[in-house]
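Before the break, one more example. Copy the sequence into your notebook; we will annotate it together after we see the structure.
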Amino acid sequence: MVTKVELTKEGAEKLEKELRHLIDIDRPEVIESLQAARAQGDLSENADYDAARTKQAEIEGRIKEIENILANVKIISEKSKAKGVVLGSTVTIKDLSDNSVETYTIVGTVEANPLKGLISNVSPLGRAVIDKNVGDIVSVHANKEYKVEILKIEAK
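Here is what the structure looks like once it is written out:
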């Protein structure tokens, strides 16, 4: 059974752009590096050749990974009519333990980057706020449980 990968439209476009760059620019560059390293002669002690082969493996692995993601992508609806928090929503919350206010966008796991305010729908906070509404106070089941209040929800 193939699992669908949930992405925002922007996330899918970003992956498609990365894939094009890997195929059109990075792959040809590493092939040139391999050819130059081969021209140096003995491959058994050729650090340039080993480095180029390693880089080639990384590029090919990433290409396959992105192709697999895009083959199984489910684009998150941008114009959700849901009233609560859904994938793609930007939600402002207040941590009731210290009254700090943070804003996060709920995305699929592939796009998650907490340092940029993108949290996965399967993270403890993401799971806690999905389907909730402004004014709801929810418990976040993490290493140390805490409560947050949903202050604002913005649909994409």
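The domain at 90-154 is CATH 3.10.50.30 (Chitinase A; domain 3). The chain has two domains: 5-75, 90-154. Try to locate both features in your own notes.
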